[in-house]
Design brief:
The chain is an alpha+beta fold and 140 residues long. The chain contains 5 helices and 4 strands, in the order H-H-H-E-H-E-E-H-E. The protein has one domain.
Amino acid sequence: MNLSGVQRLQALQSVSIPYLNPAGKTDHSANYATLDMTVPETVSSFLADRPWWNPAEFLLIAFAVYLSRIATEAKFDLGISLPAVKDELTGMESLFSTVVPLPVKVDFDRSFSAQYPDMLAQLDLARQHKTFGCGSFRTK
């Protein structure tokens, strides 16, 4: 089944994180911040044994699997924004979404390494799609 961009966005599934107040139930607006973090040596060593794995991709996928496990939800969509796409859309943000869904499907019975190629393929599809048109627009 091939869904249009709008249909795909309407079908998104969020993840419910334990102990997190839903955005609509708080008295303050969302705040966003960045934090530079050093990758732990154990993670660096793990990646050194897998030079074909991209560290940024690995960290994103590991974060998605972490969310899945703490929420005990095997399937959800994670919104990602790709810097190159944001640069391409400067001035057109009202027409195109700079956030695209990354479908996360985790099999709790399989190891991370066994699932990594499947999740990487989903990330590649999200990169290829780049954006969704807002309203009635559809892009590919």
